[in-house]
Amino acid sequence: MAKAVLFLAWLAVASALPTQDPVLRKLDPGPRYQHVSDGDGNIHLVDLWERASDIREAARYNPDSQNIYHLFTRLNPTVSQPMLIGNSGLLGLTNYNPRRRSVILIHGWNSGTTSDFNTVLIPAFLQAEDLNVIMVDWTAGSNTINYAAAVTNTKTAGEGIARFIDWLNRESGASPTHYHIVGHSLGAHMAGIIGRNVNGRIAYLTALEPALPGFVTNDDKLRADDGAYTEVIHTNAGNLGYMSTLGHVDFYPNGGYNMLGCDSIACDHARSYFYLGESLTSGGFTGRRCATYVGAMSGNCLLFGTLQMGGLVPKTGQSGIYWMETNAQPPFSRG
Is the pTM of this model over 0.85? Predict the structure, then answer.
């Protein structure tokens, strides 16, 4: 009996002590635990209440020393050449050409260099044009089961990539107007962070399925004015992806969710970069103008005007919301 009393007294004291890992803020106003897809299509239940340990983990990530930039060109379309910020000697050994346009590819959470996002888009861009395609490996900041830390690292990584671009431009004489930044999920928001931190105006930002969890009230989410032209493609809106508009132009193929030919939200979330890849090589994807994103999600689009989704060339000066239907299998475009 005495032991039981002592045990209960210990529990009372322990519960009164301050926690060693306090909750600092709620990343979203919704449920604490939500499902999020990683870059390989695996669904994870994550904690969206940011704790002190999340901040400590994120603080260990240094993009300037840990990010790796992989250059692909038509001279090396399958084997990358590494680029490191501050290493001008290594830059001189690569096939980088400042007279060509440069595409920056940014993967999402728990993704990496061999993700479908990269394996789909690298050959598509190189087929479409003689470009510098630079794949960003920020796995040191993204590849953690701790989603809250990865969300925090999205800003840190974006600012680091902006420093890399500024350094590359100083070394080579390239201009921000030569760049097309493409990001998926967390990487889509990162594209905006890069754009607003680069010393100059990035010509073209493409945000593929900007992540919803962790960004409902996040001030670091993508903004339309982060680039001279900012385009968003929504394919799992309201679940894994952001629902409302974020760019100069927002496309909602098939209403922005339940992609034809998909049987999971992870498939929906990934479809955005398959659509972009096809748009680079064969065009198509003609969107019909909508008054609101709610109308786009229901297919109720009666305004005059059409616009092509994706492609190589920024549609600078265009704005609006667009809807279209796709095919269930490649070719996805109906024209």
Answer: yes
